[in-house]
C-alpha cells in the first residue's frame, strides 16, 4: 500500500485548456493536502495567475527539457495536454508530436525526476466508434469491440494510452516504480466548451433553427466536465494510496447525463437560449450527408495551399454522430469510490447558465 503525502504538488499539463481549467479549480477546492498546482501550457491564461497556490509555467509538451523542468519536484502529474482534432485543422505530424511524443516526454520526465504517479486523460475514441460504424451499446472497459482507426487523432490517442499503460511499473531512482492509469471520457460538455459555442454560433446563422440530420435512436454517452475533473482528482488520490490496484488500469469517465443523440443532447443546452430543432426524423437523406462530407474533404484538399478549411462535417465525424456509443460501468466507483460530484440537473443548469451569458453578450454586441 502507498500513502498520500501532505503538501502535495500537482502538475496539470494542458492546464489552461477546457478540461484543464476545470481540473485546476477542482484541485483548489477539493484537495485538502494541496500545496501547489503547476499549470503547464503552451498558451497561458493570465486570468489564472491571481489564483492562490497556482503556478503558471509556459512550455511546449513536445520539448523534453520544458517538460522535465515542469515535472521536477511534483508528487503527481495529471496529463491532459492534447491536440483534439478530427476536422483537419492540424497536420498529422503535429498531432503525433503533441499527443504521442509529448506523452512520451511526460513519462520520461516522471522517471528521471522521480515523480511516481501519472494519471493520463485518454479518450473514448481509443476504442471507438470505429470507422465501420459498429455500435457500442452500454459497454464497459472489458466489452469486446473491434477498434479501427484511420484519422491522426484517434490513432495518436491510442498510441499515447498504450505508452502510459505500458510504462506502469517502470523502475525509478530510489527503488521506486512508476504508477500510471488512464481515464477515457466520453463526449465532454460544460461551461466554455468550444464545440457547443461553435454550434451556438452556427445556429444564429439559421435564425436559431437546427435541422435534424441524425436519427434520435442513435445514442451517445456524454459526461459533464466537472465530473471528469472530479474523477481525475479521486484517481490521483487513490493511485497514491493503492498503487498495486490502480496501476495499469483504464477507466471510462461517466456520470448520470442521459443517453441521447448528439443533436438531441445539444438541444438540451441550446433550447433555453431560444433554439429549436426542426424534424422528428432526419430531414436530409444519409446519402446526401455522406456526399457533403466527402465534398468537404475534397474542398479541404483544394484549399489547403491557401488556408485551412476545416468544417465540422466530414466522413469521420458523420460516422461518429451516426454510431451509438454508450458506456455502462461502475469500475471507477468500485476501484476508487467515484460518484458524480454534480447531478445531471446541476450539470445542465451550469452549462445553460454559461451559454445564456454568452448569448446575452452576443446580443449586446460584445
From TrEMBL:
InterPro entries: 3Beta_OHSteriod_DH/Estase (IPR002225), NAD(P)-bd_dom_sf (IPR036291), NAD(P)_dehydrat-like (IPR050425). Its main location: endoplasmic reticulum. It is a multi-pass membrane protein. Its EC number is 1.1.1.181. It is an enzyme of class 1 (oxidoreductase). It catalyses: 7alpha-hydroxycholesterol + NAD(+) = 7alpha-hydroxycholest-4-en-3-one + NADH + H(+); (25R)-cholest-5-en-3beta,7alpha,26-triol + NAD(+) = (25R)-7alpha,26-dihydroxycholest-4-en-3-one + NADH + H(+); (24S)-7alpha-dihydroxycholesterol + NAD(+) = (24S)-7alpha,24-dihydroxycholest-4-en-3-one + NADH + H(+); 7alpha,25-dihydroxycholesterol + NAD(+) = 7alpha,25-dihydroxy-4-cholesten-3-one + NADH + H(+). It is found in: Endoplasmic reticulum membrane. One of its GO terms (molecular function) is oxidoreductase activity, acting on the CH-OH group of donors, NAD or NADP as acceptor. PANTHER family: 3 BETA-HYDROXYSTEROID DEHYDROGENASE TYPE 7, NAD DEPENDENT EPIMERASE/DEHYDRATASE. This is 3 beta-hydroxysteroid dehydrogenase type 7. It comes from Anolis carolinensis.
